[in-house]
Structure to design on (216 residues):
C-alpha cells in the first residue's frame, strides 16, 4: 500500500468515503436515466446483461482485475484505491434496488444532467482527499509513464471498453456523449476546489494530474 497523508485524517476520510458514495449514486442515476452511460459502465452493464450479476457487482469485479494490473506497472494503491473498488459498486447496487426507474423523458433528462454534475463533484472529492486514485485512474497513469500521454492512454482504454460494452448490449446514447464532453471540465474545476492541502505523496500528485487531464 502506498502511504497516505496523516494530517487532517478525519476530514480526508469523510471526504473520501462521501465522494465514493456520491460517485456510486451518480453512476446509478445514469443507469436509471437510461440515456447512455459513461464508457466503463457501458462495459459493466454489458457484462451484467450476460450474467446473473448486477452492474454494481461487475464494477467491483472489473475494478479488482484492473487493480491487479497495477503490480506489473509498479503502481502502489492507497486506501482510496481499494475503497473505490468496493464502495462504488455496492452503492450502485443499493440505489438500483431501492429507486424506481423514471418513465417521464423530462425526469430522465434531469436525472442524467444531475448525474453528470454529481459525478464531477464526487471525483473531485475522492481524489481531492489525497488517499489514492481509483483503480482505473492508476492504470491510465501507470501506462502513461511508459511513454504515452495520459490523454492518448485514456482515449485508447475508454474507446476499447466502450466498444466492448456496446457489443455486449450496454447502453450508449446522448448521456454517453454528454458525459464525455462534460466530465473533464467538471473535474478540472472541482479537484482544486476540494483538494485538501498538506503533505502529499507522488502517487497522489500524479492522480490529480490525470484527473485534471480528464480521467475519471
Amino acid at each position: 500500500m502506498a502511504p497516505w497523508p496523516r494530517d487532517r485524517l478525519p476530514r480526508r476520510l469523510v471526504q473520501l468515503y462521501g465522494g465514493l458514495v456520491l460517485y456510486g449514486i451518480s453512476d446509478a442515476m445514469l443507469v436509471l436515466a437510461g440515456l447512455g452511460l459513461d464508457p466503463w459502465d457501458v462495459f459493466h452493464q454489458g457484462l451484467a446483461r450476460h450474467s446473473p450479476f448486477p452492474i454494481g457487482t461487475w464494477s467491483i469485479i472489473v475494478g479488482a482485475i484492473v487493480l491487479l494490473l497495477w503490480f506489473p506497472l509498479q503502481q502502489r494503491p492507497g486506501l482510496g484505491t481499494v475503497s473505490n473498488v468496493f464502495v462504488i459498486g455496492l452503492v450502485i447496487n443499493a440505489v438500483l434496488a431501492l429507486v424506481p426507474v423514471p418513465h417521464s423523458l423530462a425526469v430522465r433528462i434531469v436525472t442524467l444532467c444531475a448525474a453528470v454534475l454529481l459525478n464531477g463533484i464526487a471525483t473531485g472529492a475522492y481524489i481531492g482527499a489525497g488517499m489514492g486514485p481509483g483503480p482505473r485512474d492508476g492504470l491510465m497513469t501507470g501506462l502513461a509513464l511508459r511513454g504515452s500521454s495520459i490523454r492518448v492512454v485514456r482515449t485508447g482504454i475508454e474507446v476499447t471498453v466502450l466498444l466492448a460494452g456496446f457489443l455486449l448490449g450496454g447502453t450508449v446514447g446522448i448521456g454517453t456523449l454528454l458525459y464525455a464532453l462534460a466530465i473533464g471540465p467538471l473535474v478540472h474545476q472541482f479537484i482544486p476546489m476540494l483538494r485538501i492541502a498538506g503533505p502529499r505523496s507522488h502517487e497522489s500528485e500524479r492522480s490529480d494530474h490525470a484527473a485534471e487531464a480528464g480521467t475519471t
Residues 145 and 181 are 25 Å apart (CA to CA). The chain is about 70% helix and 0% strand. The chain has a mean pLDDT of 88. Residues 9-212 form one domain.
